[in-house]
Amino acid sequence: MDINTIDTFDKATEKTLPGFAKLSLGLLFVALVFLWSYTSYGDVPNNTFLILGAVFGAYMAMNIGANDVANNVGPAVGSKAMTLMWAIIIAAVFEALGAFIAGGEVVKTIKKGIIDPALITNPEIFIWAMTAALFSAALWLNFATSIGAPVSTTHSIVGGVMGSGIAAAGFSIVNWGTMGKIAMSWIISPVLGGVIAALFLFFIKKKIMYKKDMVSSAKIFVPYLISLMTWAFSTYLILKGFSKLVKLDFLTAAGIGFIISIIAYILVKPLVINAANKIENTRYGVNSLFTIPLIFAAALLSFAHGANDVANAIGPLAAINDAVVNSGISTDVDIPFWVMSVGAIGIAIGLALYGPKLIKTVGSEITELDQVRAFAIAMAAACTVILASQLGLPVSSTHIAVGGVFGVGFLREYLDSSESKFISNTRKKFKKDKKELDSYEHELVKLEKLEKKSKIEYMRIAELYKTIEDKVELVKQEKKEFKIAKRVKYVKRDAVKKIIAAWVITVPAAALLSGSIFFMIKGIMLP
Fold it and tell me: What predicted TM-score, i.e. pTM, was given to this entire model?
Protein backbone atom coordinates (compact mmCIF):
# COMPACT_ATOMS: atom_id res chain seq x y z
CA MET A 1 0.00 0.00 0.00
CA ASP A 2 1.51 3.39 -0.98
CA ILE A 3 1.03 6.76 0.65
CA ASN A 4 -1.89 7.60 -1.65
CA THR A 5 -3.97 4.75 -0.24
CA ILE A 6 -3.39 5.31 3.47
CA ASP A 7 -6.72 5.33 5.25
CA THR A 8 -7.61 8.30 7.42
CA PHE A 9 -7.84 7.86 11.17
CA ASP A 10 -11.03 6.29 12.45
CA LYS A 11 -13.29 9.32 12.76
CA ALA A 12 -15.54 7.65 15.30
CA THR A 13 -12.70 7.30 17.80
CA GLU A 14 -10.85 10.49 17.03
CA LYS A 15 -13.48 13.18 17.28
CA THR A 16 -12.30 16.04 19.43
CA LEU A 17 -13.90 19.12 20.92
CA PRO A 18 -15.09 21.88 18.58
CA GLY A 19 -12.53 24.62 17.92
CA PHE A 20 -14.33 27.17 20.10
CA ALA A 21 -14.45 24.76 23.05
CA LYS A 22 -10.71 24.04 22.70
CA LEU A 23 -9.91 27.74 22.62
CA SER A 24 -12.12 28.38 25.64
CA LEU A 25 -10.47 25.64 27.71
CA GLY A 26 -7.01 26.86 26.74
CA LEU A 27 -7.88 30.43 27.67
CA LEU A 28 -9.34 29.21 30.96
CA PHE A 29 -6.01 27.60 31.89
CA VAL A 30 -4.11 30.78 30.96
CA ALA A 31 -6.60 32.87 32.97
CA LEU A 32 -6.16 30.65 36.04
CA VAL A 33 -2.36 30.98 35.78
CA PHE A 34 -2.76 34.74 35.49
CA LEU A 35 -4.99 34.94 38.56
CA TRP A 36 -2.70 32.72 40.62
CA SER A 37 0.45 34.65 39.74
CA TYR A 38 -1.28 38.00 40.28
CA THR A 39 -2.60 37.07 43.74
CA SER A 40 0.69 35.40 44.77
CA TYR A 41 3.10 38.07 43.55
CA GLY A 42 0.96 41.20 43.69
CA ASP A 43 3.23 42.85 46.24
CA VAL A 44 6.54 42.04 44.52
CA PRO A 45 8.22 45.02 42.80
CA ASN A 46 8.27 44.83 39.00
CA ASN A 47 5.78 41.97 39.15
CA THR A 48 4.18 42.83 35.80
CA PHE A 49 6.69 40.80 33.82
CA LEU A 50 6.51 37.88 36.22
CA ILE A 51 2.76 37.74 35.66
CA LEU A 52 3.27 38.11 31.90
CA GLY A 53 5.96 35.44 32.05
CA ALA A 54 3.58 33.07 33.83
CA VAL A 55 0.93 33.67 31.16
CA PHE A 56 3.44 33.20 28.33
CA GLY A 57 4.81 30.12 30.13
CA ALA A 58 1.34 28.59 30.24
CA TYR A 59 0.90 29.39 26.54
CA MET A 60 4.32 27.90 25.79
CA ALA A 61 3.58 24.72 27.75
CA MET A 62 0.35 24.14 25.85
CA ASN A 63 2.18 24.54 22.56
CA ILE A 64 4.81 22.01 23.67
CA GLY A 65 2.00 19.57 24.40
CA ALA A 66 0.39 20.26 21.05
CA ASN A 67 3.60 19.85 19.04
CA ASP A 68 6.52 18.13 20.75
CA VAL A 69 4.77 15.31 22.60
CA ALA A 70 3.34 13.94 19.34
CA ASN A 71 6.74 12.40 18.60
CA ASN A 72 6.45 10.08 21.61
CA VAL A 73 3.02 8.63 20.81
CA GLY A 74 2.46 9.39 17.12
CA PRO A 75 4.02 6.15 15.77
CA ALA A 76 2.09 4.02 18.28
CA VAL A 77 -1.18 5.68 17.26
CA GLY A 78 -0.38 5.53 13.54
CA SER A 79 0.36 1.80 13.82
CA LYS A 80 -2.97 1.24 15.61
CA ALA A 81 -1.17 -0.07 18.70
CA MET A 82 -3.32 2.30 20.74
CA THR A 83 -6.21 4.66 20.14
CA LEU A 84 -5.76 8.41 20.08
CA MET A 85 -7.67 8.81 23.34
CA TRP A 86 -5.43 6.37 25.23
CA ALA A 87 -2.32 7.89 23.68
CA ILE A 88 -3.32 11.32 24.99
CA ILE A 89 -4.09 9.95 28.46
CA ILE A 90 -0.83 7.96 28.70
CA ALA A 91 1.32 10.80 27.34
CA ALA A 92 -0.29 13.42 29.57
CA VAL A 93 0.08 11.32 32.72
CA PHE A 94 3.68 10.26 32.08
CA GLU A 95 4.79 13.71 30.89
CA ALA A 96 3.49 15.17 34.16
CA LEU A 97 5.04 12.37 36.24
CA GLY A 98 8.38 12.89 34.50
CA ALA A 99 8.30 16.61 35.20
CA PHE A 100 7.29 16.31 38.85
CA ILE A 101 9.24 13.20 39.87
CA ALA A 102 12.44 13.48 37.85
CA GLY A 103 12.36 17.01 36.48
CA GLY A 104 15.48 19.08 37.05
CA GLU A 105 15.68 21.14 40.22
CA VAL A 106 18.12 23.52 38.58
CA VAL A 107 18.06 24.82 35.02
CA LYS A 108 20.49 27.03 33.21
CA THR A 109 18.64 30.27 32.53
CA ILE A 110 20.42 30.58 29.20
CA LYS A 111 19.64 27.31 27.41
CA LYS A 112 22.85 25.43 26.58
CA GLY A 113 24.93 28.58 27.22
CA ILE A 114 24.03 30.21 23.91
CA ILE A 115 24.47 33.75 25.29
CA ASP A 116 26.56 35.26 28.06
CA PRO A 117 24.20 36.76 30.68
CA ALA A 118 27.09 38.77 32.18
CA LEU A 119 26.79 41.15 29.22
CA ILE A 120 23.28 42.13 30.36
CA THR A 121 23.85 44.09 33.58
CA ASN A 122 20.37 45.56 33.99
CA PRO A 123 17.90 43.06 35.52
CA GLU A 124 14.98 44.80 33.80
CA ILE A 125 16.57 44.36 30.37
CA PHE A 126 17.21 40.69 31.20
CA ILE A 127 13.56 40.21 32.21
CA TRP A 128 12.42 41.81 28.96
CA ALA A 129 14.74 39.53 26.98
CA MET A 130 13.51 36.36 28.68
CA THR A 131 9.87 37.43 28.26
CA ALA A 132 10.44 38.00 24.55
CA ALA A 133 12.24 34.65 24.24
CA LEU A 134 9.41 32.76 25.94
CA PHE A 135 6.65 34.44 23.95
CA SER A 136 8.40 34.13 20.58
CA ALA A 137 9.14 30.41 21.10
CA ALA A 138 5.49 29.81 21.98
CA LEU A 139 4.29 31.74 18.92
CA TRP A 140 6.61 29.79 16.63
CA LEU A 141 5.47 26.44 18.07
CA ASN A 142 1.86 27.54 17.62
CA PHE A 143 2.50 28.38 13.97
CA ALA A 144 4.34 25.09 13.35
CA THR A 145 1.48 23.14 14.91
CA SER A 146 -1.07 24.97 12.74
CA ILE A 147 0.71 23.84 9.55
CA GLY A 148 1.30 20.31 10.85
CA ALA A 149 5.10 20.55 11.17
CA PRO A 150 6.72 18.82 14.21
CA VAL A 151 9.59 21.07 15.31
CA SER A 152 12.05 21.08 18.21
CA THR A 153 10.94 22.87 21.38
CA THR A 154 14.58 23.20 22.40
CA HIS A 155 15.48 24.88 19.11
CA SER A 156 12.53 27.25 19.45
CA ILE A 157 13.74 28.31 22.91
CA VAL A 158 17.33 28.57 21.67
CA GLY A 159 16.23 30.84 18.82
CA GLY A 160 14.13 32.95 21.15
CA VAL A 161 16.95 33.43 23.68
CA MET A 162 19.48 34.18 20.93
CA GLY A 163 17.24 36.76 19.24
CA SER A 164 16.36 38.66 22.40
CA GLY A 165 19.97 38.43 23.59
CA ILE A 166 21.25 40.01 20.38
CA ALA A 167 18.56 42.70 20.60
CA ALA A 168 19.56 43.44 24.20
CA ALA A 169 23.37 43.39 23.97
CA GLY A 170 24.50 42.88 20.36
CA PHE A 171 25.91 39.95 18.41
CA SER A 172 28.90 39.54 20.74
CA ILE A 173 26.61 38.07 23.42
CA VAL A 174 26.05 34.88 21.38
CA ASN A 175 28.24 31.83 21.80
CA TRP A 176 28.58 31.04 18.10
CA GLY A 177 30.41 27.77 18.76
CA THR A 178 27.37 26.47 20.61
CA MET A 179 25.10 27.71 17.84
CA GLY A 180 27.23 25.79 15.34
CA LYS A 181 26.68 22.59 17.31
CA ILE A 182 22.94 23.25 17.35
CA ALA A 183 22.99 23.73 13.56
CA MET A 184 24.80 20.37 13.31
CA SER A 185 21.91 18.71 15.10
CA TRP A 186 19.61 19.61 12.19
CA ILE A 187 21.52 17.01 10.18
CA ILE A 188 22.82 14.64 12.86
CA SER A 189 19.50 14.01 14.63
CA PRO A 190 17.29 12.93 11.73
CA VAL A 191 20.08 11.04 9.96
CA LEU A 192 21.02 9.06 13.07
CA GLY A 193 17.37 8.42 13.93
CA GLY A 194 16.56 7.38 10.38
CA VAL A 195 19.56 5.06 9.98
CA ILE A 196 19.06 3.33 13.34
CA ALA A 197 15.30 2.90 12.78
CA ALA A 198 15.97 1.50 9.29
CA LEU A 199 18.56 -0.95 10.67
CA PHE A 200 16.15 -2.27 13.31
CA LEU A 201 13.38 -2.65 10.73
CA PHE A 202 15.74 -4.37 8.29
CA PHE A 203 16.79 -6.83 11.00
CA ILE A 204 13.16 -7.65 11.87
CA LYS A 205 12.26 -8.12 8.22
CA LYS A 206 15.23 -10.40 7.52
CA LYS A 207 14.92 -12.48 10.68
CA ILE A 208 11.13 -12.66 10.97
CA MET A 209 9.03 -11.15 8.18
CA TYR A 210 10.83 -12.75 5.23
CA LYS A 211 10.80 -16.24 6.77
CA LYS A 212 8.33 -18.87 5.62
CA ASP A 213 7.46 -19.74 9.25
CA MET A 214 7.22 -16.22 10.70
CA VAL A 215 5.69 -17.38 13.98
CA SER A 216 8.59 -19.69 14.84
CA SER A 217 11.08 -16.94 14.03
CA ALA A 218 9.10 -14.47 16.12
CA LYS A 219 9.23 -16.81 19.13
CA ILE A 220 13.04 -16.69 18.93
CA PHE A 221 13.74 -13.04 18.12
CA VAL A 222 10.87 -11.02 19.64
CA PRO A 223 11.95 -11.74 23.26
CA TYR A 224 15.47 -10.58 22.37
CA LEU A 225 14.10 -7.42 20.75
CA ILE A 226 11.96 -6.64 23.78
CA SER A 227 14.94 -7.30 26.05
CA LEU A 228 17.05 -4.92 23.96
CA MET A 229 14.28 -2.33 24.17
CA THR A 230 14.25 -2.77 27.94
CA TRP A 231 18.01 -2.20 28.11
CA ALA A 232 17.81 0.89 25.88
CA PHE A 233 14.97 2.51 27.79
CA SER A 234 16.36 1.59 31.22
CA THR A 235 19.71 3.14 30.32
CA TYR A 236 18.01 6.13 28.72
CA LEU A 237 15.83 6.79 31.76
CA ILE A 238 18.70 6.39 34.22
CA LEU A 239 20.90 8.80 32.25
CA LYS A 240 18.25 11.31 31.21
CA GLY A 241 15.06 10.79 33.15
CA PHE A 242 16.37 10.22 36.68
CA SER A 243 19.41 12.51 36.59
CA LYS A 244 17.75 14.64 39.29
CA LEU A 245 17.33 11.67 41.65
CA VAL A 246 20.62 9.90 40.97
CA LYS A 247 23.62 10.77 38.80
CA LEU A 248 25.40 7.77 37.28
CA ASP A 249 27.96 7.41 34.50
CA PHE A 250 27.14 5.61 31.26
CA LEU A 251 28.80 2.28 32.14
CA THR A 252 26.99 2.05 35.46
CA ALA A 253 23.65 2.99 33.89
CA ALA A 254 24.21 0.53 31.03
CA GLY A 255 25.12 -2.22 33.52
CA ILE A 256 21.95 -1.67 35.54
CA GLY A 257 19.96 -1.58 32.30
CA PHE A 258 21.54 -4.87 31.22
CA ILE A 259 20.49 -6.58 34.46
CA ILE A 260 16.94 -5.25 34.02
CA SER A 261 16.92 -6.48 30.41
CA ILE A 262 17.89 -10.02 31.45
CA ILE A 263 15.05 -10.08 33.96
CA ALA A 264 12.71 -8.78 31.24
CA TYR A 265 13.83 -11.51 28.84
CA ILE A 266 13.15 -14.25 31.41
CA LEU A 267 9.68 -12.85 32.13
CA VAL A 268 8.72 -11.97 28.56
CA LYS A 269 9.81 -15.08 26.65
CA PRO A 270 7.04 -17.43 27.88
CA LEU A 271 4.47 -14.67 27.36
CA VAL A 272 5.62 -14.12 23.77
CA ILE A 273 5.61 -17.87 23.02
CA ASN A 274 2.11 -18.18 24.47
CA ALA A 275 0.88 -15.22 22.42
CA ALA A 276 2.62 -16.47 19.26
CA ASN A 277 0.84 -19.82 19.53
CA LYS A 278 -2.47 -17.96 19.11
CA ILE A 279 -1.64 -15.86 16.04
CA GLU A 280 -1.76 -16.62 12.31
CA ASN A 281 1.44 -17.02 10.33
CA THR A 282 1.00 -13.62 8.67
CA ARG A 283 2.55 -10.17 8.84
CA TYR A 284 -0.51 -8.93 10.73
CA GLY A 285 -0.21 -11.72 13.26
CA VAL A 286 3.46 -10.99 13.96
CA ASN A 287 2.72 -7.26 14.23
CA SER A 288 0.34 -7.93 17.10
CA LEU A 289 3.26 -9.19 19.23
CA PHE A 290 4.72 -5.67 19.27
CA THR A 291 1.58 -3.89 20.49
CA ILE A 292 2.23 -4.03 24.25
CA PRO A 293 5.96 -3.16 23.93
CA LEU A 294 4.94 -0.12 21.88
CA ILE A 295 2.57 1.09 24.59
CA PHE A 296 5.35 0.82 27.17
CA ALA A 297 7.73 2.62 24.81
CA ALA A 298 5.29 5.51 24.36
CA ALA A 299 4.85 5.82 28.13
CA LEU A 300 8.61 5.72 28.82
CA LEU A 301 9.42 8.22 26.08
CA SER A 302 6.79 10.56 27.52
CA PHE A 303 8.21 10.19 31.03
CA ALA A 304 11.75 10.90 29.82
CA HIS A 305 10.54 13.89 27.82
CA GLY A 306 8.76 15.31 30.85
CA ALA A 307 11.85 14.80 33.01
CA ASN A 308 14.43 16.08 30.56
CA ASP A 309 12.81 18.66 28.29
CA VAL A 310 10.02 20.35 30.24
CA ALA A 311 12.41 22.06 32.65
CA ASN A 312 14.46 23.40 29.75
CA ALA A 313 11.37 24.68 27.97
CA ILE A 314 10.19 26.66 31.00
CA GLY A 315 13.71 27.87 31.79
CA PRO A 316 12.97 31.47 30.72
CA LEU A 317 9.99 31.57 33.11
CA ALA A 318 12.22 30.32 35.94
CA ALA A 319 14.77 33.00 34.98
CA ILE A 320 12.12 35.73 35.04
CA ASN A 321 10.88 34.52 38.43
CA ASP A 322 14.40 34.55 39.86
CA ALA A 323 15.24 37.99 38.41
CA VAL A 324 12.03 39.55 39.71
CA VAL A 325 12.06 37.98 43.16
CA ASN A 326 15.81 38.44 43.80
CA SER A 327 16.33 41.60 41.71
CA GLY A 328 19.39 40.08 40.05
CA ILE A 329 20.64 37.86 37.25
CA SER A 330 21.77 34.28 37.91
CA THR A 331 23.24 31.68 35.59
CA ASP A 332 21.62 28.77 37.46
CA VAL A 333 18.26 29.08 39.20
CA ASP A 334 15.92 26.81 41.10
CA ILE A 335 12.67 25.90 39.39
CA PRO A 336 9.82 26.65 41.82
CA PHE A 337 7.09 24.05 42.11
CA TRP A 338 4.53 26.44 40.64
CA VAL A 339 6.66 26.99 37.53
CA MET A 340 7.04 23.23 37.04
CA SER A 341 3.29 22.86 37.56
CA VAL A 342 2.57 25.41 34.83
CA GLY A 343 4.82 23.43 32.51
CA ALA A 344 3.50 19.96 33.35
CA ILE A 345 -0.22 20.82 33.45
CA GLY A 346 0.05 23.08 30.39
CA ILE A 347 1.65 20.30 28.36
CA ALA A 348 -1.13 17.88 29.32
CA ILE A 349 -3.82 20.42 28.37
CA GLY A 350 -2.13 21.35 25.08
CA LEU A 351 -1.72 17.69 24.16
CA ALA A 352 -5.37 16.90 24.89
CA LEU A 353 -6.73 19.93 23.02
CA TYR A 354 -4.43 20.33 20.04
CA GLY A 355 -2.11 17.30 20.04
CA PRO A 356 -4.14 15.12 17.62
CA LYS A 357 -3.08 17.21 14.61
CA LEU A 358 0.64 16.51 15.07
CA ILE A 359 0.04 12.95 16.30
CA LYS A 360 -1.69 12.30 12.99
CA THR A 361 1.14 13.96 11.04
CA VAL A 362 3.85 11.85 12.70
CA GLY A 363 1.75 8.69 12.85
CA SER A 364 0.20 8.51 9.38
CA GLU A 365 0.80 11.46 7.07
CA ILE A 366 4.53 10.95 6.44
CA THR A 367 4.39 7.22 5.77
CA GLU A 368 2.22 4.24 6.67
CA LEU A 369 3.20 2.63 9.96
CA ASP A 370 2.47 -0.74 11.50
CA GLN A 371 3.56 -2.02 14.91
CA VAL A 372 6.91 -3.36 13.70
CA ARG A 373 7.84 -0.07 12.01
CA ALA A 374 6.70 1.94 15.03
CA PHE A 375 8.77 -0.35 17.29
CA ALA A 376 11.85 0.36 15.16
CA ILE A 377 11.22 4.12 15.52
CA ALA A 378 10.86 3.86 19.30
CA MET A 379 14.10 1.88 19.51
CA ALA A 380 15.84 4.49 17.37
CA ALA A 381 14.66 7.28 19.68
CA ALA A 382 16.20 5.67 22.77
CA CYS A 383 19.37 4.33 21.14
CA THR A 384 20.16 7.53 19.25
CA VAL A 385 19.99 9.69 22.37
CA ILE A 386 22.26 7.25 24.23
CA LEU A 387 24.74 7.07 21.34
CA ALA A 388 24.77 10.83 20.76
CA SER A 389 25.24 11.63 24.46
CA GLN A 390 28.30 9.37 24.62
CA LEU A 391 29.79 10.85 21.44
CA GLY A 392 29.06 14.39 22.56
CA LEU A 393 26.82 15.05 19.55
CA PRO A 394 23.97 17.58 19.84
CA VAL A 395 20.64 15.98 18.98
CA SER A 396 16.94 16.82 19.08
CA SER A 397 14.40 14.26 20.26
CA THR A 398 11.87 15.67 17.79
CA HIS A 399 14.24 15.35 14.85
CA ILE A 400 15.26 11.83 15.92
CA ALA A 401 11.67 10.57 16.07
CA VAL A 402 10.62 12.13 12.77
CA GLY A 403 13.91 11.03 11.20
CA GLY A 404 13.03 7.50 12.33
CA VAL A 405 9.70 7.77 10.51
CA PHE A 406 11.56 8.91 7.38
CA GLY A 407 14.03 6.04 7.78
CA VAL A 408 11.47 3.23 7.90
CA GLY A 409 9.54 4.77 5.01
CA PHE A 410 12.56 5.08 2.74
CA LEU A 411 13.68 1.56 3.66
CA ARG A 412 10.30 0.24 2.54
CA GLU A 413 10.77 1.95 -0.80
CA TYR A 414 14.20 0.40 -1.16
CA LEU A 415 13.13 -3.09 -0.18
CA ASP A 416 9.89 -3.24 -2.10
CA SER A 417 11.02 -5.73 -4.71
CA SER A 418 7.70 -5.83 -6.58
CA GLU A 419 7.80 -2.09 -7.29
CA SER A 420 11.51 -2.18 -8.12
CA LYS A 421 11.02 -5.09 -10.52
CA PHE A 422 8.06 -3.38 -12.15
CA ILE A 423 10.03 -0.20 -12.76
CA SER A 424 13.06 -2.16 -13.94
CA ASN A 425 11.06 -4.36 -16.32
CA THR A 426 9.12 -1.40 -17.65
CA ARG A 427 12.34 0.48 -18.26
CA LYS A 428 13.91 -2.50 -20.11
CA LYS A 429 10.79 -3.05 -22.21
CA PHE A 430 10.62 0.64 -23.05
CA LYS A 431 14.26 0.68 -24.17
CA LYS A 432 13.83 -2.50 -26.25
CA ASP A 433 10.69 -1.24 -28.01
CA LYS A 434 12.28 2.19 -28.55
CA LYS A 435 15.29 0.52 -30.17
CA GLU A 436 13.02 -1.54 -32.42
CA LEU A 437 11.07 1.59 -33.36
CA ASP A 438 14.29 3.36 -34.34
CA SER A 439 15.34 0.41 -36.51
CA TYR A 440 11.95 0.33 -38.31
CA GLU A 441 12.10 4.05 -38.97
CA HIS A 442 15.66 3.72 -40.29
CA GLU A 443 14.58 0.89 -42.63
CA LEU A 444 11.60 2.92 -43.84
CA VAL A 445 13.79 5.91 -44.68
CA LYS A 446 16.12 3.67 -46.74
CA LEU A 447 13.24 2.08 -48.67
CA GLU A 448 11.59 5.43 -49.45
CA LYS A 449 14.85 6.77 -50.86
CA LEU A 450 14.86 4.02 -53.56
CA GLU A 451 13.92 5.44 -56.98
CA LYS A 452 12.55 2.13 -58.23
CA LYS A 453 10.64 -0.03 -55.79
CA SER A 454 9.44 -3.58 -56.27
CA LYS A 455 6.03 -4.82 -55.21
CA ILE A 456 7.59 -6.52 -52.21
CA GLU A 457 9.30 -3.27 -51.17
CA TYR A 458 5.99 -1.38 -51.43
CA MET A 459 4.33 -4.01 -49.26
CA ARG A 460 7.19 -3.72 -46.76
CA ILE A 461 6.83 0.07 -46.64
CA ALA A 462 3.11 -0.27 -45.89
CA GLU A 463 3.84 -2.87 -43.25
CA LEU A 464 6.48 -0.62 -41.67
CA TYR A 465 4.05 2.32 -41.48
CA LYS A 466 1.53 0.15 -39.65
CA THR A 467 4.20 -1.38 -37.41
CA ILE A 468 5.69 2.02 -36.57
CA GLU A 469 2.24 3.44 -35.78
CA ASP A 470 1.48 0.55 -33.41
CA LYS A 471 4.95 0.70 -31.86
CA VAL A 472 4.71 4.47 -31.25
CA GLU A 473 1.49 3.95 -29.30
CA LEU A 474 3.07 1.12 -27.32
CA VAL A 475 6.14 3.19 -26.48
CA LYS A 476 3.93 6.10 -25.38
CA GLN A 477 1.94 3.79 -23.09
CA GLU A 478 5.11 2.26 -21.60
CA LYS A 479 6.56 5.70 -21.02
CA LYS A 480 3.37 6.70 -19.20
CA GLU A 481 3.44 3.52 -17.07
CA PHE A 482 7.09 4.08 -16.22
CA LYS A 483 6.37 7.63 -15.02
CA ILE A 484 3.44 6.40 -12.92
CA ALA A 485 5.61 3.64 -11.40
CA LYS A 486 8.28 6.13 -10.45
CA ARG A 487 5.67 8.28 -8.71
CA VAL A 488 4.57 5.47 -6.36
CA LYS A 489 6.26 6.34 -3.06
CA TYR A 490 5.90 5.22 0.52
CA VAL A 491 7.10 8.53 1.97
CA LYS A 492 5.10 11.62 1.16
CA ARG A 493 7.61 14.02 -0.36
CA ASP A 494 5.57 17.14 0.34
CA ALA A 495 5.49 16.29 4.05
CA VAL A 496 9.27 15.72 4.08
CA LYS A 497 9.95 19.08 2.40
CA LYS A 498 7.60 20.95 4.73
CA ILE A 499 9.05 19.41 7.89
CA ILE A 500 12.70 19.89 6.88
CA ALA A 501 12.00 23.51 5.92
CA ALA A 502 10.40 24.09 9.34
CA TRP A 503 13.42 22.53 11.08
CA VAL A 504 15.91 24.71 9.21
CA ILE A 505 14.12 27.99 9.86
CA THR A 506 13.06 27.32 13.48
CA VAL A 507 16.09 28.98 15.15
CA PRO A 508 16.32 32.02 12.83
CA ALA A 509 12.55 32.51 12.76
CA ALA A 510 12.22 32.34 16.56
CA ALA A 511 15.25 34.64 16.89
CA LEU A 512 13.85 37.27 14.52
CA LEU A 513 10.47 37.13 16.23
CA SER A 514 12.06 37.36 19.67
CA GLY A 515 14.21 40.35 18.74
CA SER A 516 11.19 42.16 17.35
CA ILE A 517 9.15 41.49 20.50
CA PHE A 518 12.05 42.67 22.69
CA PHE A 519 12.20 46.01 20.86
CA MET A 520 8.42 46.35 21.18
CA ILE A 521 8.66 45.79 24.95
CA LYS A 522 11.59 48.19 25.20
CA GLY A 523 9.69 50.85 23.25
CA ILE A 524 6.70 50.51 25.56
CA MET A 525 8.67 50.47 28.82
CA LEU A 526 11.20 53.23 28.17
CA PRO A 527 9.95 56.83 28.45
Answer: 0.74
